[in-house]
User: Fold this.
Amino acid sequence: MQSIQVKDYMTHRPVTFKEEMTVVEAAERLLIAHQIGGPVLNQYRHVIGFLSEQDCLERMLEDTYQNESPYKVADIMRTDVLCVKPEHSILDLAQSMLSNKPKIYPVVDDDNNLLGTINRSDVLKAIDRHQHAIYEQGHGRFV
Assistant:
């Protein structure tokens, strides 16, 4: 299982944001992409934050009550982003997901450049495929 790596199951074209985008623009991007969140990138494609549907919903609801929308992504993004490397083990990531709350992890290279994202469904799919491969190697029975 250790040989199953993040790079084999990550999303290569995730939704991303720029810190100067409005929250409304970011929410529209999430809706179009059918994703629940994504990394915020600077001009060098380095991960500097993370924005989720929940972040947008909270701010947009507040804006609705105040009849204004002054917020930018930089105002509400989370900056304590947990990232993984493409060579990271799926098993280790699954273990980490049990104790950490992020549902989506940016995948970055050694220079913090975004390569993609991996989410809980991707990890579950990797483990499921591995389990099926073991089952098939055992000639129709789990070993």
